[in-house]
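Q: Convert this sequence to structure tokens.
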Amino acid sequence: MRRRRHNKTSQFDWLKSLEGQTVGEYVLDKYIGCGKIGYVYKAHLHDIPDIEHAVKLIPSLRSGWQTEIKKVGKLSKVSNVVHFHRIGAGTVGDGKHSATVQFTVWDYVHPGRSLRSVLEGQAYLPVSFVLAIVETILHVLHACQHLGIPRHGDLHPGNILIGDNDNSQLDSNLQPVEPIYVSDFGYG
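A:
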């Protein structure tokens, strides 16, 4: 789902240390990052550990929280979008704190790299990779326009996710490509 720098200290920063705990029927495996409204974990269903999800814990709902889910719902048949699976509520705690949180469940893009982290770690990007990113973003934005979604709402390098190149996705020349996804459509 998302990996964003969040420099402000929050009263909910303890939500970054919940690895191994459960919310709803999901086990929080690894903290990924946080944004303006939530804390994201790689997680799995308690009864099905082989299927990974991204779970966003939202301690305090703001007006308009349904906007992102509505946008992504309209894009449910569009490839290269991180898709929404469900919403729930549960109580989490770290021994010192506890809170009832809303949580949303999304596709998990293994290994959870964002374009931001790729750009920070490399001085040079192959032209084919840059072209694949641009094509993916344009494909998703075209789908947004066609489906009546006025805008992404939060498009930046932290919300472009890069998956493992496992050779399962091919370009038009039948060459393996790294899977690229657009995530976090924001409240806008």
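Confidence is low (pLDDT under 50) at residues 1-7.
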